[in-house]
């Protein structure tokens, strides 16, 4: 029997399917904000839980919003355009 205060006794969180859109987005923002600190300083279990929960919530977001707005600059062609512009600007005339 597990001790009630043991590391596995805490709930894994509310199912992503049960979250309304605002709460889902808020939870994703929280996880993205804390990712770097968890990666650098969290225990192996904390990092694994963070990774799993992030994947669950991101999958739910993509399921709900398959046609989400994608900024052109965040695509490969947008990055190439940005790089070409930076090269052109750095080239002496």
From TrEMBL:
Region: Disordered, residue numbers: 71-93
Protein name: Uncharacterized protein
Lineage, uppermost ranks: Bacteria, Bacillati, Actinomycetota, Actinomycetes, Kitasatosporales
């Amino acid at each position: 029997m597990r001790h009630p205060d043991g590391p596995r006794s805490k709930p894994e969180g509310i199912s992503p399917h049960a979250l309304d859109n605002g709460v889902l987005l808020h939870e994703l923002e929280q996880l993205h904000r804390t990712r770097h600190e968890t990666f650098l300083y969290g225990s192996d279990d904390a990092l694994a839980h963070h990774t799993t929960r992030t994947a669950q919530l991101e999958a739910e977001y993509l399921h709900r919003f398959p046609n989400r707005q994608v900024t052109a600059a965040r695509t490969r062609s947008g990055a190439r355009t940005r790089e070409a512009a930076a090269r052109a600007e750095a080239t002496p005339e």
